[in-house]
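Tokens for sn-1-specific diacylglycerol lipase. Go.
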Amino acid sequence: MPALRLLGRKWLAASDDLVFPSIFELLFRFVWLVLIALVVEVLYPITWQCQTDGWHGGAFVRLYLCGTLALQASLMLLLAALAQQSARGTITETDARKLVSPLLLLKVFLVLPEVALNVMGTMWMFCEVIECSVTDTFSSIVIQSIVLFNWVQLALTVFGLFMVFDPLGSVNYGDMQDTPNQVRHHRKVTGLWSRRFRWAFCWLKRDEHGKEAFQQVAALLSALFRSTDLVPSDVVAGCVLLRVRQKRETREMRRIQMLNDEEPIYTTDVNKVFSETPPWMNLDDALHYLRLSIAAYGWPYVLYRHCLTGFCKLARHLTCCCCRPKNSIVTDDNCCLCHFAGVKYMSKLSADDIIFASFNNRVFELPFCVISDHDRESIVVAVRGSISLRDIFTDFSAGSEKFEADGLPEDTAAHKGMSMGAAKMLRRLLPVLDRAFAQFPHYDLVLTGHSLGAGVAVLVALKLRPKYPQLKVFAFSTPAGLISREAARFTESFVMTIGVGDDLVMRLSVHSIENLRTKVIQTIHATKLPKYRIMLNGFGYALFGVPARDLESTWRRPEDLEANNSDDSDALLVQGVSTVSAEAALVSRNVFARRFSSARLFTPGRILHIARRKRMGIEKKVRTQEPTYEMRWACPEDFMELQVMPRMLLDHLPENVHRTIQTIIEEKHSYRVTQVV
């Protein structure tokens, strides 16, 4: 940070990104240098005895050997200097690395003699146009290997240049502020991302809303980092630093709670948690409906969970192509009804209990199942979560649009992709529900889903509630940016949302990503470590956790981090009051005042947040029968900030959510048995 300037343009790399590539290439070239030196010692005297001593014989070979030896030695010195210069200074101290650009430019120019020498080696070893054969097997193998590896290394160099090439790199950072130039630049970046999507995911263009989704996601990506000079490695380093910062803040909060002798927010007493909730809000029913929402994932989830035996588990539920009934309740499945087989296997239901199953997966269109649950006398609509690229584009079409339903305020907004998915689902769902309730008129209506499926289930429920006022929704790991605050409050009476631990998606919204962008820039300016040290520390944190000494030693002035720890740090930056440094305020001015979405969206329903209980004192050494998890009723504002945590992806997986709820129920029953005994 900022981006590297070379050959009159900026690239998607920084001057401090070259430490590890230079060291790795230096090690490879050292091996090549040793091998070519051995070959020169063996072959150089022999070259004087070749059939021809001109440019088609010995002289050609001597030029290749000596040239390759000298070039490898020169490149090793250059790479050592490049690694040393790239390692200097912190991420923002670019003046300390001012020699990186000329050194890198010199290395680029040395590609030309390297290609020429490699062509000579290819002619000698593979084309048989040089009249100087090599009888020594070791030397022949070494030269051939070096030639081949050199071509591979040159191909990787070209690929690396392609990866860090910025098509809009000729634009100066100073021209990307709040001016007409900035607006034009934003449009160019949006168009560039849209073209990339159309090329990379060409098969999605056939979907009805494929191009619209491309445009939505392209606009989001362009807006998130416009007018910033961040490169991808800066974002990775910033996330590592945020992990340290957030652990430091957590430690300080616990210390304050202990000093103030505050009552813990979380509790392990399940009865206490559910003492003031309606009877239908309970963990037993939640576990039951979570199993049905997982079943909606179909055969891919079965193979994911049972890699070796998945096919055998599905085989007895498959339908022969010849035996498939014409008027099937299943639509858009393959000839053997593999998705349907997965639903039957995971739900433990018979085909007669599944009223309808649609597996049509398009952009803004999700598969779902309608199930008659006789045990709980309910019609269950299970909506599938994200499992395909089409679902990802639905997820990231994260702009807000007006959402209308009876009982909601007029200015209600909702997630655009999920709102469109709910509208499409309703068209197919309504006639199915009419048939289902004609058959089971006294049954209740329950909607359930995980992740994207949970968000769509809530929006569908809002549309259906005027017709089915007693419906209930069990939503698991619901995305944060779903619906307006007042609408979210309205859903608390009929939606139960369950989230586990550090679930990323429970905190993922446009607003939280924009705040993450803000904190990444602030944190980068606050650190006193170079980027290569941050990356090395990141690997250590992933394996062994963050040591206590790094919570303070990472920062120039740790107290500045606390000054910026506000609920909406954008306001500080808009006013130019960045206490990290004046440079940080200069880099981030005005960027954070702009929002991709004008409406702030929240998590719906009454939110039960479950966290793994931190073992204290003797519990770390002695195994006790204390509960594994603790929980509390949270509010949507608690999930407005992304947490960079080791389990932020694992806690979102449906099997981990299922295991968590199941463990709580089992421990609750075992505790009762212990009390009785």
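Confidence is low (pLDDT under 50) at residues 566-594.
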